[in-house]
Design a protein that fits this description.
The complex is a heterodimer. Chain A is an alpha/beta fold. Chain A contains 13 helices and 10 strands. Chain A has a 9-stranded mixed beta sheet with strand order 2-8-7-6-5-4-3-9-10, covered by helices on one side. In chain A, α2 links the parallel β3 and β4. In chain A, α4 crosses α6 and α8 runs parallel beside α12. Chain A is globular and about 50 Å long. In chain B, a hairpin with a 4-residue loop joins β3 and β4. Chain B is globular. The termini of chain B are close together. The chains are: A alpha/beta, B alpha+beta. The interface between A and B is large, with 38 and 36 residues. β1 of chain A pairs antiparallel with β4 of chain B.
Protein backbone atom coordinates (compact mmCIF):
# COMPACT_ATOMS: atom_id res chain seq x y z
CA UNK A 1 0.00 0.00 0.00
CA UNK A 2 1.47 3.33 -0.99
CA UNK A 3 1.19 6.74 0.55
CA UNK A 4 -0.76 9.52 -1.19
CA UNK A 5 0.96 9.91 -4.48
CA UNK A 6 1.69 13.61 -4.57
CA UNK A 7 0.94 16.83 -2.84
CA UNK A 8 1.81 20.25 -4.18
CA UNK A 9 0.58 23.78 -3.78
CA UNK A 10 -2.53 24.53 -5.75
CA UNK A 11 -1.63 25.79 -9.14
CA UNK A 12 -4.75 26.86 -10.95
CA UNK A 13 -7.19 29.38 -9.52
CA UNK A 14 -8.59 30.02 -13.00
CA UNK A 15 -10.52 26.80 -12.84
CA UNK A 16 -11.88 26.80 -16.33
CA UNK A 17 -9.49 28.54 -18.64
CA UNK A 18 -11.33 29.91 -21.60
CA UNK A 19 -8.52 29.21 -24.01
CA UNK A 20 -4.81 29.68 -24.25
CA UNK A 21 -5.06 33.38 -24.93
CA UNK A 22 -4.72 34.52 -21.37
CA UNK A 23 -1.37 35.66 -20.08
CA UNK A 24 -1.35 34.90 -16.39
CA UNK A 25 0.82 36.84 -13.97
CA UNK A 26 0.85 36.17 -10.29
CA UNK A 27 2.27 34.42 -7.30
CA UNK A 28 0.68 31.11 -8.19
CA UNK A 29 2.32 30.78 -11.55
CA UNK A 30 5.11 28.48 -10.44
CA UNK A 31 2.96 25.58 -9.30
CA UNK A 32 1.31 24.31 -12.41
CA UNK A 33 2.90 20.87 -12.51
CA UNK A 34 0.32 18.86 -10.64
CA UNK A 35 -2.66 20.71 -12.05
CA UNK A 36 -1.24 20.26 -15.53
CA UNK A 37 -1.03 16.55 -14.86
CA UNK A 38 -4.63 16.47 -13.67
CA UNK A 39 -5.85 18.52 -16.60
CA UNK A 40 -3.91 16.31 -19.00
CA UNK A 41 -5.64 13.30 -17.58
CA UNK A 42 -9.05 14.91 -17.94
CA UNK A 43 -8.19 15.72 -21.54
CA UNK A 44 -7.02 12.21 -22.29
CA UNK A 45 -9.95 10.55 -20.55
CA UNK A 46 -12.44 13.12 -21.89
CA UNK A 47 -13.76 14.09 -18.47
CA UNK A 48 -15.53 17.46 -18.03
CA UNK A 49 -13.38 18.43 -15.10
CA UNK A 50 -13.96 22.14 -15.77
CA UNK A 51 -17.46 23.42 -16.38
CA UNK A 52 -18.51 27.03 -16.65
CA UNK A 53 -22.14 27.69 -15.85
CA UNK A 54 -23.69 30.98 -16.89
CA UNK A 55 -26.42 31.60 -14.35
CA UNK A 56 -27.88 34.71 -15.92
CA UNK A 57 -27.46 37.08 -18.83
CA UNK A 58 -28.55 40.01 -16.69
CA UNK A 59 -25.88 42.55 -15.94
CA UNK A 60 -25.75 45.81 -14.04
CA UNK A 61 -23.26 47.39 -16.44
CA UNK A 62 -23.17 47.72 -20.21
CA UNK A 63 -19.62 47.02 -21.31
CA UNK A 64 -18.93 48.10 -24.85
CA UNK A 65 -16.96 44.92 -25.54
CA UNK A 66 -19.39 42.46 -23.93
CA UNK A 67 -19.15 39.05 -25.60
CA UNK A 68 -22.66 38.01 -24.61
CA UNK A 69 -24.79 40.54 -26.38
CA UNK A 70 -25.07 44.16 -27.41
CA UNK A 71 -26.44 45.65 -24.21
CA UNK A 72 -27.24 48.94 -25.88
CA UNK A 73 -29.90 47.22 -27.96
CA UNK A 74 -33.26 46.20 -26.52
CA UNK A 75 -32.99 42.54 -25.52
CA UNK A 76 -34.83 40.33 -27.96
CA UNK A 77 -34.71 42.99 -30.64
CA UNK A 78 -34.27 41.94 -34.21
CA UNK A 79 -30.73 42.91 -35.04
CA UNK A 80 -28.11 41.42 -37.28
CA UNK A 81 -27.22 37.93 -36.29
CA UNK A 82 -29.60 37.69 -33.36
CA UNK A 83 -30.94 34.17 -33.18
CA UNK A 84 -34.15 32.59 -32.06
CA UNK A 85 -32.40 31.31 -28.97
CA UNK A 86 -32.47 34.83 -27.54
CA UNK A 87 -36.18 34.46 -26.87
CA UNK A 88 -35.81 31.38 -24.69
CA UNK A 89 -35.99 31.91 -20.96
CA UNK A 90 -32.93 31.43 -18.82
CA UNK A 91 -32.64 28.17 -16.94
CA UNK A 92 -34.91 28.24 -13.93
CA UNK A 93 -33.57 27.79 -10.44
CA UNK A 94 -35.09 24.31 -10.36
CA UNK A 95 -33.37 23.43 -13.62
CA UNK A 96 -30.02 24.61 -12.28
CA UNK A 97 -30.55 22.56 -9.13
CA UNK A 98 -31.29 19.51 -11.25
CA UNK A 99 -28.23 20.14 -13.39
CA UNK A 100 -25.62 20.37 -10.63
CA UNK A 101 -25.69 16.69 -9.61
CA UNK A 102 -25.48 15.76 -13.29
CA UNK A 103 -22.29 17.78 -13.61
CA UNK A 104 -20.88 16.10 -10.54
CA UNK A 105 -21.76 12.65 -11.83
CA UNK A 106 -20.09 13.41 -15.17
CA UNK A 107 -16.81 14.28 -13.45
CA UNK A 108 -16.85 18.02 -12.94
CA UNK A 109 -14.72 19.36 -10.10
CA UNK A 110 -13.99 22.96 -11.05
CA UNK A 111 -17.27 24.80 -11.44
CA UNK A 112 -17.13 28.39 -12.63
CA UNK A 113 -20.25 30.47 -12.10
CA UNK A 114 -20.64 33.47 -14.36
CA UNK A 115 -23.09 35.79 -16.09
CA UNK A 116 -23.99 38.44 -17.20
CA UNK A 117 -23.16 39.60 -13.74
CA UNK A 118 -23.35 36.56 -11.51
CA UNK A 119 -24.19 38.65 -8.44
CA UNK A 120 -27.45 39.77 -10.04
CA UNK A 121 -28.62 36.15 -9.98
CA UNK A 122 -31.26 36.02 -7.25
CA UNK A 123 -30.54 32.42 -6.20
CA UNK A 124 -26.76 32.62 -6.17
CA UNK A 125 -26.37 31.61 -2.54
CA UNK A 126 -28.69 28.64 -2.94
CA UNK A 127 -26.58 27.51 -5.89
CA UNK A 128 -23.41 27.99 -3.85
CA UNK A 129 -24.92 26.00 -0.99
CA UNK A 130 -25.71 23.13 -3.30
CA UNK A 131 -22.30 23.34 -4.96
CA UNK A 132 -20.70 23.06 -1.53
CA UNK A 133 -22.80 20.01 -0.68
CA UNK A 134 -21.69 18.43 -3.93
CA UNK A 135 -18.03 19.21 -3.23
CA UNK A 136 -17.39 21.38 -6.26
CA UNK A 137 -14.46 23.77 -6.24
CA UNK A 138 -16.20 26.97 -7.23
CA UNK A 139 -14.95 30.09 -8.90
CA UNK A 140 -16.98 33.21 -9.54
CA UNK A 141 -16.51 35.62 -12.41
CA UNK A 142 -17.78 39.11 -11.63
CA UNK A 143 -17.35 42.75 -12.52
CA UNK A 144 -16.89 43.41 -8.81
CA UNK A 145 -19.29 46.32 -8.54
CA UNK A 146 -21.82 44.52 -6.33
CA UNK A 147 -19.40 43.27 -3.70
CA UNK A 148 -20.71 45.22 -0.74
CA UNK A 149 -19.22 44.30 2.66
CA UNK A 150 -22.00 41.87 3.49
CA UNK A 151 -21.65 40.12 0.18
CA UNK A 152 -17.90 39.67 0.53
CA UNK A 153 -18.29 38.33 4.04
CA UNK A 154 -20.95 35.87 3.00
CA UNK A 155 -18.88 34.63 0.07
CA UNK A 156 -16.00 34.24 2.46
CA UNK A 157 -17.97 31.63 4.39
CA UNK A 158 -17.75 29.19 1.49
CA UNK A 159 -14.66 27.11 2.07
CA UNK A 160 -15.05 25.49 -1.34
CA UNK A 161 -14.72 28.87 -3.05
CA UNK A 162 -11.52 28.62 -5.03
CA UNK A 163 -11.46 32.25 -5.96
CA UNK A 164 -13.12 35.19 -7.62
CA UNK A 165 -12.05 36.62 -10.94
CA UNK A 166 -12.75 40.32 -11.37
CA UNK A 167 -12.66 42.13 -14.69
CA UNK A 168 -10.90 45.46 -14.83
CA UNK A 169 -10.68 47.71 -17.85
CA UNK A 170 -8.44 50.60 -17.00
CA UNK A 171 -5.96 52.24 -14.71
CA UNK A 172 -8.19 55.24 -14.25
CA UNK A 173 -11.86 55.70 -13.56
CA UNK A 174 -12.58 57.60 -16.73
CA UNK A 175 -11.26 54.85 -18.99
CA UNK A 176 -12.78 51.93 -17.06
CA UNK A 177 -16.12 53.66 -16.52
CA UNK A 178 -16.22 54.71 -20.16
CA UNK A 179 -16.08 51.05 -21.15
CA UNK A 180 -18.59 49.84 -18.56
CA UNK A 181 -20.85 52.87 -19.15
CA UNK A 182 -21.33 52.98 -15.39
CA UNK A 183 -19.92 55.98 -13.53
CA UNK A 184 -18.20 54.93 -10.35
CA UNK A 185 -17.67 51.33 -11.44
CA UNK A 186 -13.84 51.50 -11.35
CA UNK A 187 -13.90 52.59 -7.74
CA UNK A 188 -16.53 50.02 -6.82
CA UNK A 189 -14.62 47.24 -8.56
CA UNK A 190 -11.40 48.00 -6.69
CA UNK A 191 -13.32 48.29 -3.43
CA UNK A 192 -14.94 44.93 -4.15
CA UNK A 193 -11.58 43.29 -4.82
CA UNK A 194 -10.20 44.58 -1.55
CA UNK A 195 -13.28 43.45 0.37
CA UNK A 196 -13.00 39.94 -1.02
CA UNK A 197 -9.38 39.77 -0.06
CA UNK A 198 -10.29 41.01 3.38
CA UNK A 199 -12.77 38.16 3.62
CA UNK A 200 -10.00 35.68 2.91
CA UNK A 201 -10.95 35.02 -0.68
CA UNK A 202 -8.39 34.64 -3.44
CA UNK A 203 -8.90 37.32 -6.06
CA UNK A 204 -7.53 37.38 -9.55
CA UNK A 205 -7.92 40.46 -11.69
CA UNK A 206 -8.61 40.05 -15.36
CA UNK A 207 -7.42 42.79 -17.65
CA UNK A 208 -9.17 42.89 -20.99
CA UNK A 209 -6.99 45.04 -23.21
CA UNK A 210 -8.85 47.27 -25.66
CA UNK A 211 -8.25 50.41 -27.67
CA UNK A 212 -9.17 52.81 -24.86
CA UNK A 213 -7.08 51.13 -22.17
CA UNK A 214 -4.12 49.87 -24.20
CA UNK A 215 -2.07 52.97 -23.31
CA UNK A 216 -2.69 52.15 -19.64
CA UNK A 217 -1.57 48.53 -19.62
CA UNK A 218 1.71 49.20 -17.87
CA UNK A 219 -0.08 51.25 -15.23
CA UNK A 220 -2.78 48.60 -14.79
CA UNK A 221 -0.13 45.98 -14.20
CA UNK A 222 1.71 48.22 -11.79
CA UNK A 223 -1.44 48.90 -9.80
CA UNK A 224 -2.22 45.21 -9.45
CA UNK A 225 1.32 44.34 -8.49
CA UNK A 226 1.65 47.14 -5.97
CA UNK A 227 -1.58 46.05 -4.32
CA UNK A 228 -0.58 42.41 -4.35
CA UNK A 229 -3.18 41.03 -6.75
CA UNK A 230 -2.45 38.38 -9.33
CA UNK A 231 -3.89 39.08 -12.72
CA UNK A 232 -4.20 37.82 -16.23
CA UNK A 233 -4.19 39.73 -19.47
CA UNK A 234 -6.41 39.03 -22.45
CA UNK A 235 -6.10 41.01 -25.66
CA UNK A 236 -8.71 39.23 -27.74
CA UNK A 237 -12.12 40.83 -28.23
CA UNK A 238 -14.53 38.67 -30.19
CA UNK A 239 -17.78 39.24 -32.04
CA UNK A 240 -20.67 38.79 -29.67
CA UNK A 241 -22.57 35.59 -29.14
CA UNK A 242 -25.72 37.33 -30.37
CA UNK A 243 -24.03 37.77 -33.72
CA UNK A 244 -23.45 41.50 -33.46
CA UNK A 245 -19.97 42.84 -34.14
CA UNK A 246 -19.95 46.21 -32.48
CA UNK A 247 -17.55 44.84 -29.90
CA UNK A 248 -14.85 44.61 -32.55
CA UNK A 249 -14.52 48.37 -32.50
CA UNK A 250 -12.89 47.90 -29.12
CA UNK A 251 -10.16 45.62 -30.41
CA UNK A 252 -6.66 46.95 -30.32
CA UNK A 253 -5.26 47.65 -33.74
CA UNK A 254 -2.42 45.65 -35.20
CA UNK A 255 0.11 48.37 -34.56
CA UNK A 256 -1.19 48.86 -31.06
CA UNK A 257 -0.90 45.13 -30.42
CA UNK A 258 2.63 45.05 -31.75
CA UNK A 259 3.56 47.97 -29.51
CA UNK A 260 2.04 46.18 -26.51
CA UNK A 261 3.89 42.95 -27.23
CA UNK A 262 7.17 44.78 -27.76
CA UNK A 263 6.59 46.99 -24.75
CA UNK A 264 4.42 46.63 -21.66
CA UNK A 265 3.50 43.00 -22.31
CA UNK A 266 6.91 41.91 -23.58
CA UNK A 267 7.80 39.91 -20.51
CA UNK A 268 4.62 37.86 -20.64
CA UNK A 269 4.26 37.34 -24.36
CA UNK A 270 3.68 33.63 -24.83
CA UNK A 271 6.67 31.80 -26.17
CA UNK A 272 5.14 28.88 -27.95
CA UNK A 273 3.12 27.69 -25.01
CA UNK A 274 1.25 24.88 -26.70
CA UNK A 275 3.07 22.03 -28.39
CA UNK A 276 1.63 21.48 -31.83
CA UNK A 277 0.49 17.88 -31.86
CA UNK A 278 -2.27 16.17 -33.77
CA UNK A 279 -4.56 15.57 -30.82
CA UNK A 280 -3.82 18.80 -28.98
CA UNK A 281 -4.85 21.24 -31.62
CA UNK A 282 -6.26 23.54 -30.59
CA UNK A 283 -7.27 23.24 -26.94
CA UNK A 284 -9.25 21.67 -24.15
CA UNK A 285 -12.67 22.40 -25.70
CA UNK A 286 -15.04 19.44 -25.27
CA UNK A 287 -12.19 17.37 -23.83
CA UNK A 288 -11.73 18.64 -20.28
CA UNK A 289 -13.77 21.84 -20.55
CA UNK A 290 -17.22 22.91 -21.49
CA UNK A 291 -19.66 25.69 -20.76
CA UNK A 292 -23.38 25.87 -20.21
CA UNK A 293 -25.19 29.01 -21.26
CA UNK A 294 -27.95 30.70 -19.33
CA UNK A 295 -30.34 29.17 -21.84
CA UNK A 296 -29.07 25.67 -21.09
CA UNK A 297 -27.03 25.16 -24.23
CA UNK A 298 -23.89 23.12 -23.72
CA UNK A 299 -20.93 24.66 -25.51
CA UNK A 300 -17.38 23.38 -26.00
CA UNK A 301 -16.14 26.38 -24.01
CA UNK A 302 -17.27 29.76 -22.81
CA UNK A 303 -16.02 31.46 -25.93
CA UNK A 304 -17.57 29.13 -28.49
CA UNK A 305 -21.37 29.33 -28.61
CA UNK A 306 -21.77 26.16 -30.66
CA UNK A 307 -24.61 24.23 -29.04
CA UNK A 308 -23.92 20.55 -28.55
CA UNK A 309 -27.27 20.05 -26.86
CA UNK A 310 -29.48 21.57 -24.21
CA UNK A 311 -29.73 20.43 -20.62
CA UNK A 312 -33.47 21.05 -20.68
CA UNK A 313 -33.82 18.31 -23.24
CA UNK A 314 -31.06 15.86 -22.36
CA UNK A 315 -29.00 14.88 -19.39
CA UNK A 316 -25.66 16.64 -19.33
CA UNK A 317 -23.72 13.39 -19.31
CA UNK A 318 -25.46 12.20 -22.45
CA UNK A 319 -24.68 15.45 -24.24
CA UNK A 320 -21.08 15.34 -23.10
CA UNK A 321 -20.61 11.77 -24.24
CA UNK A 322 -22.72 11.52 -27.37
CA UNK A 323 -23.19 14.95 -28.88
CA UNK A 324 -22.25 14.99 -32.57
CA UNK A 325 -20.78 18.46 -32.07
CA UNK A 326 -18.46 17.29 -29.32
CA UNK A 327 -17.63 14.11 -31.20
CA UNK A 328 -16.70 16.21 -34.19
CA UNK A 329 -14.48 18.52 -32.15
CA UNK A 330 -12.77 15.58 -30.48
CA UNK A 331 -12.06 14.06 -33.85
CA UNK A 332 -10.47 17.15 -35.40
CA UNK A 333 -6.85 16.98 -36.48
CA UNK A 334 -4.51 19.73 -37.57
CA UNK A 335 -5.29 19.15 -41.22
CA UNK A 336 -8.92 20.01 -40.55
CA UNK A 337 -7.89 23.57 -39.74
CA UNK A 338 -7.25 24.48 -43.34
CA UNK A 339 -5.70 27.88 -42.80
CA UNK A 340 -3.84 26.87 -39.65
CA UNK A 341 -2.31 23.62 -40.86
CA UNK A 342 0.33 25.19 -43.10
CA UNK A 343 0.82 28.32 -40.96
CA UNK A 344 4.39 28.79 -39.69
CA UNK A 345 3.09 30.77 -36.71
CA UNK A 346 1.28 27.80 -35.15
CA UNK A 347 3.64 27.45 -32.19
CA UNK A 348 3.05 31.09 -31.31
CA UNK A 349 -0.70 31.11 -31.81
CA UNK A 350 -3.27 31.32 -29.04
CA UNK A 351 -5.52 29.17 -31.25
CA UNK A 352 -8.41 31.06 -29.79
CA UNK A 353 -11.34 29.01 -31.03
CA UNK A 354 -13.79 31.51 -29.61
CA UNK A 355 -12.41 34.30 -31.73
CA UNK A 356 -12.26 32.03 -34.77
CA UNK A 357 -15.77 30.68 -34.30
CA UNK A 358 -17.40 34.01 -33.59
CA UNK A 359 -15.55 35.73 -36.39
CA UNK A 360 -15.80 33.11 -39.12
CA UNK A 361 -18.78 31.08 -38.01
CA UNK A 362 -16.64 27.94 -38.16
CA UNK A 363 -14.88 26.18 -35.34
CA UNK A 364 -12.02 25.36 -37.69
CA UNK A 365 -12.02 28.86 -39.16
CA UNK A 366 -9.75 31.75 -38.38
CA UNK A 367 -9.85 35.28 -37.10
CA UNK A 368 -7.34 37.63 -38.77
CA UNK A 369 -6.66 39.27 -35.42
CA UNK A 370 -5.55 35.99 -33.89
CA UNK A 371 -3.42 35.24 -36.94
CA UNK A 372 -1.78 38.63 -36.77
CA UNK A 373 -1.29 38.25 -33.04
CA UNK A 374 0.55 34.99 -33.65
CA UNK A 375 2.77 36.63 -36.25
CA UNK A 376 3.59 39.49 -33.90
CA UNK A 377 4.29 37.04 -31.12
CA UNK A 378 6.72 35.18 -33.37
CA UNK A 379 8.43 38.41 -34.31
CA UNK A 380 8.79 39.44 -30.69
CA UNK A 381 9.84 36.04 -29.39
CA UNK A 382 12.40 35.48 -32.10
CA UNK A 383 13.71 39.02 -31.83
CA UNK A 384 17.11 39.38 -30.26
CA UNK A 385 16.06 42.58 -28.54
CA UNK A 386 16.10 41.99 -24.78
CA UNK A 387 12.81 42.74 -22.99
CA UNK A 388 14.29 45.53 -20.94
CA UNK A 389 15.38 47.36 -24.07
CA UNK A 390 12.07 46.67 -25.77
CA UNK A 391 10.19 48.34 -22.97
CA UNK A 392 12.16 51.53 -23.17
CA UNK B 1 -0.42 15.10 14.54
CA UNK B 2 -0.66 11.33 14.74
CA UNK B 3 -3.71 9.28 13.96
CA UNK B 4 -2.59 6.81 16.61
CA UNK B 5 -4.90 3.96 17.33
CA UNK B 6 -7.75 5.61 19.17
CA UNK B 7 -10.59 7.81 18.11
CA UNK B 8 -12.19 8.24 14.70
CA UNK B 9 -11.66 10.41 11.69
CA UNK B 10 -13.74 11.64 8.83
CA UNK B 11 -12.87 13.66 5.80
CA UNK B 12 -13.50 17.40 5.86
CA UNK B 13 -16.90 17.46 4.21
CA UNK B 14 -16.49 20.96 2.80
CA UNK B 15 -13.39 20.23 0.77
CA UNK B 16 -13.93 19.90 -2.97
CA UNK B 17 -12.95 16.59 -4.48
CA UNK B 18 -13.63 14.44 -7.48
CA UNK B 19 -12.66 11.02 -8.68
CA UNK B 20 -10.68 10.97 -11.88
CA UNK B 21 -10.18 7.45 -13.13
CA UNK B 22 -8.75 5.55 -10.14
CA UNK B 23 -7.34 8.62 -8.43
CA UNK B 24 -9.07 11.33 -6.45
CA UNK B 25 -8.30 15.03 -6.59
CA UNK B 26 -8.83 16.91 -3.33
CA UNK B 27 -8.70 20.68 -3.35
CA UNK B 28 -8.08 22.89 -0.34
CA UNK B 29 -8.94 26.40 -1.53
CA UNK B 30 -7.90 28.17 1.65
CA UNK B 31 -4.44 26.64 1.68
CA UNK B 32 -4.20 26.94 -2.09
CA UNK B 33 -3.34 23.27 -2.28
CA UNK B 34 -4.45 20.38 -4.40
CA UNK B 35 -3.81 16.76 -3.57
CA UNK B 36 -3.88 13.83 -5.89
CA UNK B 37 -4.69 10.64 -4.02
CA UNK B 38 -3.70 7.35 -5.50
CA UNK B 39 -6.11 4.45 -5.62
CA UNK B 40 -5.49 3.29 -2.08
CA UNK B 41 -5.62 6.70 -0.50
CA UNK B 42 -8.72 7.44 -2.56
CA UNK B 43 -10.39 4.33 -1.11
CA UNK B 44 -9.66 5.54 2.40
CA UNK B 45 -10.96 8.98 1.47
CA UNK B 46 -14.13 7.30 0.31
CA UNK B 47 -14.49 5.33 3.53
CA UNK B 48 -13.93 8.47 5.57
CA UNK B 49 -17.19 9.96 4.33
CA UNK B 50 -18.39 8.73 7.69
CA UNK B 51 -16.28 8.58 10.87
CA UNK B 52 -13.92 5.62 10.96
CA UNK B 53 -11.32 4.46 13.41
CA UNK B 54 -8.04 2.96 12.33
CA UNK B 55 -9.36 -0.42 13.48
CA UNK B 56 -12.47 -0.06 11.35
CA UNK B 57 -10.52 1.03 8.31
CA UNK B 58 -8.11 -1.87 8.77
CA UNK B 59 -10.93 -4.35 9.02
CA UNK B 60 -12.69 -3.03 5.92
CA UNK B 61 -9.53 -2.87 3.85
CA UNK B 62 -8.50 -6.30 5.07
CA UNK B 63 -11.28 -7.71 2.95
CA UNK B 64 -10.07 -5.80 -0.08
CA UNK B 65 -6.28 -6.11 0.00
CA UNK B 66 -4.18 -9.22 0.22
CA UNK B 67 -1.90 -7.84 2.92
CA UNK B 68 -1.00 -9.11 6.39
CA UNK B 69 -3.04 -7.37 9.09
CA UNK B 70 -0.08 -5.82 10.87
CA UNK B 71 1.30 -4.44 7.64
CA UNK B 72 -2.11 -3.18 6.61
CA UNK B 73 -2.68 -1.47 9.94
CA UNK B 74 0.68 0.23 9.76
CA UNK B 75 -0.13 1.48 6.28
CA UNK B 76 -3.55 2.73 7.37
CA UNK B 77 -2.01 4.68 10.24
CA UNK B 78 0.51 6.16 7.84
CA UNK B 79 -2.18 7.15 5.36
CA UNK B 80 -4.52 8.64 7.95
CA UNK B 81 -1.59 10.51 9.45
CA UNK B 82 -0.70 11.82 6.02
CA UNK B 83 -4.20 12.98 5.21
CA UNK B 84 -4.62 14.47 8.67
CA UNK B 85 -1.34 16.37 8.52
CA UNK B 86 -2.49 17.97 5.28
CA UNK B 87 -5.63 19.20 7.00
CA UNK B 88 -7.95 17.00 5.01
CA UNK B 89 -9.46 15.12 7.94
CA UNK B 90 -11.48 16.07 10.97
CA UNK B 91 -11.00 14.20 14.24
CA UNK B 92 -14.14 12.77 15.71
CA UNK B 93 -14.51 11.42 19.19
CA UNK B 94 -11.07 11.57 20.68
CA UNK B 95 -8.80 11.01 17.74
CA UNK B 96 -5.29 12.21 18.37
Amino acid sequence: MAAPARSLSLAVAEAALRCQDELIVGAEGANYALMSQVQDKAFTETVPLNVSLELTLNCNIRCLHCYNLDRDLPQGSCHDGGGESDARPDLSFEEVMRLLPELREAGCLFLTLSGGEVLTYPHLYAVLDRARELNFAVQLLTNGTMLQPGVAARLGSYRNLLGVSISLYGATADVHDGITQMPGSWRRTWDGAERLRGAGITVRLKFIVMRPNAPQVAEMRAQAESRGFSYLVDVTITPRHDGTRGSLAMRVGEEQLAELYRGPLRDIVPTGRQPVTEDRFPCNCARGNCAISAKGDVHPCVSVPWAAGNVREQRFGDIWRDSPVFQKIRGLRIADYEACAPCPDKPFCSRNRGAAFNYSGRYTGTDPFVCRSAAITREVVTSTTPPSAARE
Amino acid sequence: MSAGVTGSWRRDSELPFQKLDEETIVVDPRRREVHLLNETAARIWELLASPQSVDELTTTLGGEYDVAEAELREAVVELVDGLSSKGLLVSVGGAR
